[in-house]
């Protein structure tokens, strides 16, 4: 079968509403969205602390997050596999080969991206806004909300970048999720499996989804970064 014929079949499979294919797509988006939503509050708290607080080890902590940006996903997966395996220190939680384990892995991958990019956005902000709000007696949480609202485009860019990173990773999801059909099989692990079997139709269909997603995320990222510069 030629490449054009395989691609045609893949598009037909994608637009025909194939249940197995769309379960994989839905699961992939669900796990990654939950990972982002769980990580975002902690990431914003850490970014604000690094941007506005003075404490010993601040630069070391920031360097640690920058270093984590380069850690391969498969290494994170290996560490979690050891932790969650039956003989591991957290084996009693029975998290291995579950969606929860996949979310934890993706959250760890997303955290340094969210912290570093949010910290950069906060560093570029006008601190007089924060200082004025506090001086006028505004509660700290309201002052923080006002500051984050002013930086919303930069923060959205951080979220988009992190989401694009984790939804396309394969190493961590494969190791801690186990690639179980209708339970932990997401887009990247399904592509890897189908390609290894020589079945390219579903792999190409899912690859098209990731390609469209990548284009959409990059367009959105450019849009929000442009908005942030204008603001």
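-> sequence recovered:
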């Amino acid at each position: 079968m030629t490449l054009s014929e395989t691609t045609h079949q893949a598009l037909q499979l994608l637009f025909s509403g194939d249940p197995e294919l769309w379960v994989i797509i839905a699961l992939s988006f669900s796990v990654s969205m939950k990972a982002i939503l769980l990580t975002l509050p902690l990431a914003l708290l850490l970014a604000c602390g690094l941007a506005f607080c003075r404490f010993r080890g601040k630069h070391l902590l920031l360097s640690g997050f920058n270093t984590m940006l380069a850690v391969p996903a498969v290494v994170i997966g290996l560490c979690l596999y050891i932790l969650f395996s039956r003989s591991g220190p957290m084996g009693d939680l029975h998290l291995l080969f579950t969606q929860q384990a996949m979310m934890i892995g993706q959250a760890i991958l997303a955290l340094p991206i969210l912290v570093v990019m949010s910290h950069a956005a906060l560093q570029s902000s006008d601190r007089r806004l924060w200082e004025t709000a506090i001086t006028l007696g505004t509660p700290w949480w309201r002052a923080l909300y006002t500051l984050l609202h002013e930086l919303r485009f930069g923060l959205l860019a951080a979220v988009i970048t992190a989401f694009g990173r984790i939804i396309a990773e394969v190493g961590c999801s494969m190791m801690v999720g186990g690639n179980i059909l209708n339970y932990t099989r997401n887009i990247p692990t399904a592509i890897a499996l189908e390609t290894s079997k020589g079945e390219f139709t579903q792999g190409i269909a899912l690859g098209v989804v990731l390609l469209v997603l990548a284009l959409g995320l990059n367009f959105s990222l450019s849009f929000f970064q442009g908005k942030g510069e204008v603001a």
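The chain is about 75% helix and 0% strand.
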